[in-house]
Amino acid sequence: MDKNHALDAFAALSQATRLDVFRLLINAGDAGLPAGDISHTLGVRQNTMSTNLSVLARAGLIRSEREGRSIRYFADMDGMRGLLAFLMEDCCGGRPELCQPVLNELACPC
């Protein structure tokens, strides 16, 4: 992940509703959640939620799959791993291999 992509991800997560959505989708795991359930759970109007989901998707933090007339959303674990790796790439005095166990622990194999 490059610096600009990381900045997009941080900008997406810097808004309260989007951070709540991302955390909710991480919690949902492989099952993900339909857009309507996300809106209902967080108490956010669907048109507002649609905008927030689009921002998270453009930042590479979530992905979606169409199921008939509904769309199911999932946390993009590769995007999250990329962001964590970007944050830690210069750790340990520029020796990222020393931090790999931490990255492995943080990024579940979901």
Task: Explain what the structure shows.
With 110 residues, the protein is α+β, with helices and mostly antiparallel strands. It has a single domain (3-106), classed as Winged helix-like DNA-binding domain superfamily/Winged helix DNA-binding domain (Arc Repressor Mutant, subunit A, Orthogonal Bundle), CATH 1.10.10. Helix content is 62%, strand content 13%. The chain is built from seven helices and three strands. The chain has helices at 3-13, 16-28, 35-42, 46-58, 77-88, 91-94, 100-106; strands at residues 33-34, 62-67, 70-75. A three-stranded antiparallel beta sheet has the order 1-3-2. A hairpin with a 2-residue loop joins strand 2 (62-67) and strand 3 (70-75). Helix 1 runs antiparallel to helix 4 and helix 2 (16-28) crosses helix 4. The longest helix is centred in the N-terminal third of the chain and has 13 residues, at 16-28. The two termini are 20 Å apart. The model has no long low-confidence stretch (mean pLDDT 90). It holds the Pfam family HTH_20. This is Helix-turn-helix transcriptional regulator. Keywords: DNA-binding, Transcription, Transcription regulation.
